[in-house]
Amino acid sequence: MKKSLMPLAATIVAALCPGISAGESYFNPRFLSEDDAAVADLSRFEKGSHQAPGEYRVDIWRNEEFIATEDLRFVEATAVRPGETVKTGGLTPCLDVDWLKRLGLNMLAYPDLVKYKAGECVPLDEAIPGAETTFDFAKLRLDISLPQASLLNSARGYIPPEQWDEGIPAMLANYSFTGNRGSNDDNYYLSLQSGLNYGPWRLRNNGAWSYTSGDGYRTNSWKNISTYLQRTIIPLKGEMVLGDSNTGTDVFDSLGFRGARLYSSDSMYPDSLQGYAPTVRGIARTNAKITIRQNGFVIYQSYVSPGAFAISDLNPTSSSGDLEVTLEEKDGSQQKYSVPYSTVPLLQREGRLKYDLVAGDFRSGNSQQDTPFFTQATLIAGLPNGYTAYGGTQLAERYTAAALGLGKNLGEWGAISMDVTHARSKLADDSEHQGQSLRFLYAKSLSDYGTNFQLLGYRYSTRGFYTLDEVAYKNMEGYEYEDQDGNQHKEPVVQSYHNLRYSKRGRFQVNISQALGDYGSLYVSGSQQTYWGTDGNNTWYQAGYASGWRGISYSVSASWSKSVGIDDTDRIVAFNLSVPFSTLLGHGYSRDSAIDRAYATFAASRNSAGDNTFQTGVGGTLLEGRNLNYSVTQGRSSTSGYSGSANANWQATYGTLGVGYNYDRDQHDLNWQMSGGIVGHADGVTFSQPLGDTNVLIKAPGASGVNVENQTGVKTDWRGYAVMPYATVYRYNRIALDTNSMDNHTDIENNVSSVVPTQGALVRAAFSTRIGVRAIITVKRGARPVPFGSVVREETSGATSMVGDEGQIYLSGLPLKGKLLIQWGNGKGSQCFAPYSLPEESLKQAVVMATATCS
C-alpha cells in the first residue's frame, strides 16, 4: 500500500511546488527563526550533499587495501543525462593522473589519460570502465575500486616506489650502557651505534667499550665492531653496503667482511619472506649476565632472571652466522653454547631472481684468524612448478668453493631444499684438501595439528671439506680466551676452541613447536655437530612445555650442552610458575588496578652438578602507561645460600632505565641498564627510546606531552617532537597522536599520518597544530546576534568555525588578541569583522567565555 502512495505524493508535491524537483531538499529558514536576516544563506545544503566541496583528510583504500591517509580535494558529483550534465548531490574525489599513478594504474593501458593535465580531475568511471568510488563522510573513508587487470602490480601490499620516502637529513645515535658494582669486581659495558643520513645514503658505526676492575686487575678497551656506508638501489631492487658488514646466509655460511656488497632486498617486494633472526634460548639458575658474540665481537649483553629465557630482538644485520652464548651465573659458574643459524628452504616465486655479490677482506674479531681477500657471488632463481634453483661461488687465495642446489614447494608436505658444495682448501700447515658438503633443509607448518617445523636441517661433509672461516685460522688448533674482550677473572676463561684436524662431519638442526590447544604448547630446539677424527661433538638441545589455567601460567624446560675441547657439560632442568594477584584475590581482572597487574612467581632449577636453586617473588607494572616493570624475589641456592633481588625497568619518553640489586651469601652487587636514542635534525635535537634501524620523527610544534598511540612510553617532548622507533620499511606505517592526552590549549587538525620509509631512513610525520585558547565568543552585530550558520575564520591563526544559536561561536587555538571574519552570504554586504581581546588568565582555563562586536 505504501509503494502505491509514493508516486502520488511526489506528484502532489511537484504540482504544489513546481520550482522544486522531487529529488531536492529545501531548508526553510523560518524553521530556525521568523526573521530571515537572523539565518545565513543555507542554499548549499539543498542539493543532497550535506557537506561542502573542499579539501578533507581521508583514509584512502584501494580494492579493500589501505593506501594512505592524506588531504584530498572533493568536488560535487555529476551525472550525464541526454543533452546535459547535472549535479547529483554528494561528493566525489578529484583524482588527477599523478594520483592514478600512485594507485598503481597501468597508464599505458589507457592512452586517453594523456589529455588530462596535472591537477585536473579525471572522471574515473568514464576513463576506466569498471572503476568505482565510494565516500563515507562520517568515517572520512574513501574506497576506490579498480579492475585488477588495470593495475601494474596486482600483488597485495604493493606500494609504488614513487611513494617510498628516503627520509630527512639527520644525525643519529643509539646507546646502551650496563654496569655492575659488586663485592668482588666492577664491570661496565657501553654499546654505541651512531649514524648520519643524507638523501638515500646511510653512514653507520657500531662500537663497544668495556671496563672491568677487581682484586689486583683492571681492563679497559674499546672495540670498533663495524663501520659502513649503505644506500638503496631502487632500480635494482637492492641494497649496497661499503665497509664492514656480513655476507648473506642463503647459500654459504655468513662471514664478516670489510669491502663491498650488492644484494637483493626482499623487503622491497610485496608479500615476500622477510627472513628471521635466530632466537637465543637458555635457562638461567640465578640473575645471570648473558653475553652473545659473533665472529669474536660482543653484539649483545644484558641480564636475565632465573628460569627459561628467549632473546628474539637481536639486530638482524648481525644475527646471521653462529652465535656464541655465555651465561654467567651469580656464583661465577658459566654456561657456554653455540646457536647455529641457517635459512629455511630457499624458495622464490616464479620469475624472481635474487642476487648477492661481495668483495672484500675476511673480517673477524678472533685473533686466531687471518684476513684474506675473497669474493663471493650467489644467485637464486624462481622456476615454474614450485622449483627454485640456486648456486654460488667463493674465491680466495687459499680457498675455492662452488655450490649448487634445488628447492621444491611440496604443497601440503611443506618445502624442501638440497644443495652440494665442493671446496678446495689450503690450511695453516700448507696441507691441501678437497671435499664436499651436502645440506638438506625442511620447513613445514601443520596448521590443523598446531605443529610448526620452523627449521629442520642436516649437513654432511666429507673428511676433506673446509669452510673459508676455517681456512682463515693462522694455526691448526688453539683456544680463544675471553680476556681479549676484557676478562673479569683472575684466570683466562676459554671462549672457544678450534682444531682443523677435526674437520666437520655432520650437523643436525631442529626447531619444532607443537600447540596443544587448551593444554599449552611444546617446543624442541637444538643442534649437534660431529667431527672427523674424534668422537667428541658440539651439542646443544633445549625442550620445554608451557601452559596456563585461569590466568595462571607455568612452564617446564630442560637444556643440555657440551663442546669439543671444553670438558664441562651443562645439563639444567627448570620449573617456572606465575599467578596473577587477581586470581589470588578471587575477583575479575581490572587493567586499571596496579594490584591486578601484579603477579606472584616461583622458580626452581637443578643442574648436572647437583646444584639446586629456588626463588619466589612478586612483579608487575606501574604508572598510568604501564611502562614501569618491577620484580622482587627471595630464594635459596645449595651453592651460595640465601639470595634475593629487586629490579625495576622504566620505559620512558627519552629512553629506558633499569636498576637491580642482588645478594647472596658470598657477594652482593648493584647493576643498572640505561639505553636510548638521540636524533639531530633541521628542527633541533630530539631524545628518544632506543632507535631501530628505520625510524619516524613526529613533528607537532608546540604540542608537548602528547602520547603516540600503540607506542609504550612514547610522547612528544616540550617542543612537540618525538621519535617512533622500529618503523616497517617499504610498508605503510600509521602514526596517530592520542588526542585525549592533549592539554586544554592544544588542538591538532588531523591526528593521523602515514609514511612509507626506505631502509635506514628517518622519515618525518608532520602534524598541523593549533596552540592557543579555547573560547566561546558571543558576537553581536549592532543589537542582534550575527546570523545563525555563518562561516567564521580567525585571521591570524586560521581557526575556523560556524555561528550557533544566539551568535555563539566555539573556536580553539586562538591567540589572546585577534579578529574574526564572519560571512553569511556572498558579497561585502554579507560579512563583518569582530575584533576580540582575551585576558592572560584565559591560558589557565579550559574554555573561556567572551563577547565581541562585529562591524
Automatic annotation (TrEMBL):
Q: How does it sit in the membrane?
A: Multi-pass membrane protein
Instruction: List the keywords (alphabetical).
Output: Cell outer membrane, Fimbrium biogenesis, Membrane, Signal, Transmembrane, Transmembrane beta strand, Transport
Where is this chain's protein located in or outside the cell? Cell outer membrane
What GO CC terms are in its UniProt record?
A: cell outer membrane
Name of a matching Pfam family: PapC_C
Source species, please? Buttiauxella brennerae ATCC 51605
Q: Which GO terms describe its molecular function?
A: fimbrial usher porin activity
GO BP terms: namely: pilus assembly
> Which NCBIfam families did the record assign?
PRK15193.1 (NF011740), PRK15198.1 (NF011745)
Which family would the database say this protein is a member of? Belongs to the fimbrial export usher family.
Q: What region holds the PapC N-terminal domain?
A: 26-178
Domain PapC-like C-terminal positions: 777-840
SUPFAM superfamilies, alphabetically?
FimD N-terminal domain-like (SSF141729)
Q: Which InterPro entries match?
A: Fimb_usher (IPR000015), Fimbrial_membr_usher_CS (IPR018030), FimD_plug_dom (IPR042186), PapC-like_C (IPR025949), PapC-like_C_sf (IPR043142), PapC_N (IPR025885), PapC_N_sf (IPR037224)
Q: What is this protein called?
A: Outer membrane usher protein
Q: Which residues constitute the signal peptide according to the record? A: 1-22
